[in-house]
Sequence to fold (340 residues):
Amino acid sequence: MAQEYASKQPQGFKNKIENVAIVGAGGQVGKFIVEALLKNGKHKITAITRGGSTKKFAEGVHVKEVDYDDPASLTEALKGQDALVITMGVMAPPDQQTKLVEAAAAAGVPWVLPNEFGGDGLNEQAGKEIFLGPPKKAVRDHIEKLGKSSWIGIACGFWYEYSLGGGPYRYGFDFKNKTVTMYDDGTGRLDTSTWPQTGREVANLLGLKVLPEDEHDKSPCLAHFRNTFVFGSSFTISQKEMLESVLRVTGDSADDWKVTYVPAKEAYQEGMKTFQAGNRAGFAQVLYSRSFFPDGFGNPSSTRGLDNDKLGLPKEDLDEFTKEGIRLRMSGYFNNEEGI
Fold:
């Protein structure tokens, strides 16, 4: 597609995103996206929710109820929207996102941010090895085939505070027993984002102008990310660096912790066996151990670079979010994740 310019568009062309619809606006990451969008103050935000839902949303968020079994209700809810942001949990019905992108096409929504929020989606082989790649690619391909919307994938890596506090099958930490399992020698680095940074990444992306003004305009715009990924991160970090932060936050000494080392590829194979035996903890082990392979899948900043500066993302305090990860674990946040 040839580069388009705002100055060449018909009269009345709007070179910005004004109306943003979000699915999962009160969810795990959705609430941080809404918070960042509201803080930026550039958009009218609409939460798309199921009819009869009792979920409360932040002040200033409009609400539209839909019936996922009625395509017309979805299309009607999305009319007039400039962008649709989809955030869904892993237990959401598998066809729900397809219904949303089809409704977005029918309503003429020009931009869709599908339910990506993960690693390097351009690495198709690694995507297959963690099972998530093919279904996500199918959604992206479907958006393109429908021909009405463009997509942008958010490659933010794992969420740091969630993954640190989420048990030994994620970043390896067991805070109750003060043990940590490190992949390989514990120095392999990966890109990881906090929930607030992910919110800012989405909000600042949607705050960009849509097209460059003319051929001399080199500032970032949405069109630069059309049908590809934006790469953002809070920290590029190793497990050893995570442990150093844990020690600073807790006041523990290194001797208080037992550290075990396991080859990432061996952990991946063990996770596959566990998962195939019906234990979902195995899936978490597959997902995380694969990201520590030395091919850069979990560390796209080393192969593709980051878009933090283009999006004006701030530097963050590692220890602040280490403290939050520990708080999540100790508060019982993960108690419903049996076996993980």
Q: What stands out?
A: The chain has a mean pLDDT of 95.
